[in-house]
Specification:
With 175 residues, this protein is of the alpha/beta class. It contains four helices and 15 strands. It has one domain: 3 Solenoid (UDP N-Acetylglucosamine Acyltransferase, domain 1). It starts with a helix and ends with a strand.
């Protein structure tokens, strides 16, 4: 838990372009995305430790405080950065790699209530634009860019750029 917190703080400093304790204090007080990540880490720690009541309790408090709904059972790598966190939903079986960057109104979840275990597995260094929806048991590779309002319901290879909301359009980026 604490190793991930150090990397989350380092990512905050990197994105904000600031260093020192004042950047962390600003994040704690004013950044709803940073608050949501820290509260998720605490809720996940309770859940992984077998303290069943406190994980969902902390997650519910986080939703009330930040507007970000991250299930305590989700597996999220270090360095997650959420910008303008309102409306983000990350389901319980979802997996996000290291250094993911999420904008507002992103949904990462199951296709139907009867298939709640089918959630995305997202690689490292993935950018997910505002309003994007990643649905079902899909796999998203490393270094992927998913644009604004994209609806992703099929696998995305590493290094791809998904830009279309009306239909999935994948562009391979040059290495």
């Amino acid at each position: 838990m604490f190793a991930n917190l150090r990397q989350d703080i380092a990512r905050l400093r990197e994105v904000k372009g600031k260093s020192g304790w004042l950047c962390v204090l600003e994040g704690l007080l004013f950044e709803s995305g940073f608050q949501a990540v820290l509260l998720y880490r605490l809720a996940h720690w309770f859940k992984a430790g077998g303290v069943r009541f406190f994980g969902p309790l902390v997650a519910r408090y986080s939703l009330w405080l930040t507007g970000v709904d991250i299930a305590p059972a989700a597996a999220i790598g270090p360095g997650l950065y959420i910008s303008h966190g309102n409306g983000i939903v990350i389901g319980g079986s979802a997996r996000l790699g290291a250094r993911a960057f999420l904008l507002q109104q992103v949904t990462i979840g199951a296709p139907t209530p009867s298939r709640v275990q089918e959630m995305p597995a997202i690689g490292d260094n993935v950018f997910i634009g505002a309003g994007a929806r990643l649905i079902g048991g899909i796999s998203v590779g490393d270094d992927v860019f998913i644009g604004v309002n994209a609806v992703v319901a099929e696998d995305i290879p590493s290094g791809a750029k998904v830009t279309s909301a009306a239909g999935l359009r994948i562009e391979r980026r040059a290495p």
